[in-house]
Fold V-type proton ATPase subunit D.
Amino acid sequence: MSGQTQRLNVVPTVTMLGVVKARLVGATRGHALLKKKSDALTVQFRQILKKIVATKESMGDIMKSSSFALTEAKYVAGENIKHIVLENVHTATLKVRSRQENIAGVKLPKFDYFTEGETKNDLTGLARGGQQIQLCRAAYVKAIEVLVELASLQTSFLTLDVAIKTTNRRVNALENVVKPRLENTISYIKTELDELEREDFFRLKKVQGYKKRELEKQLMNAKMFAEEQVAEKMSLQKGVSLHTAHNMLNDSSKVDEDIIF
């Protein structure tokens, strides 16, 4: 796209030039701020990505240990352990709450786990596998904590990804579309104002030339009128005709010129 088409359709005036310059300053300042925001979000994005990788690596070992703990509990306490656990548990003690964290103007969702109420060791006194069931419970609590942390990181990861793409689109639009269009508009207005100034200067020179010619014409008419008055006065004083008086004046003016030069 040529520079002629990448400009605003405005009237080339001094006022509009000031308005477009102000818009260019605002666009430049907004581009700098959005660029800083994009850099900050990118840094946070990479940190979250590293945490996700580390959490997923640790999650494999934790899930494996929790599965082995469940297998050991079933082996010790028997296959009917599920019914015993359900009878002794009425409400959840490990819960999750959500909050928001502000990163460079982007609100990232965060999930935190917390324990509500007291944990009773009702299964400890069982004849078979009470201690092993408690170990299994602790292993799965740890797995839940890792899963909550991983869910929080992945949700923040996706939100940051969308925010970074949106910010980068705005940065690219300001850098490649808005700013060049405003700069081309400023260049167009300056060119038109220079052309108008040259036209005004040419018009002024023409007016001055016309006034000069009119002044010369007026001076010539005044001189002819003065000569006519002098010729009439001379014809009356010397009793000659008006034509003869003009000739005498012309002869006297030639003599004066010869004396001067």
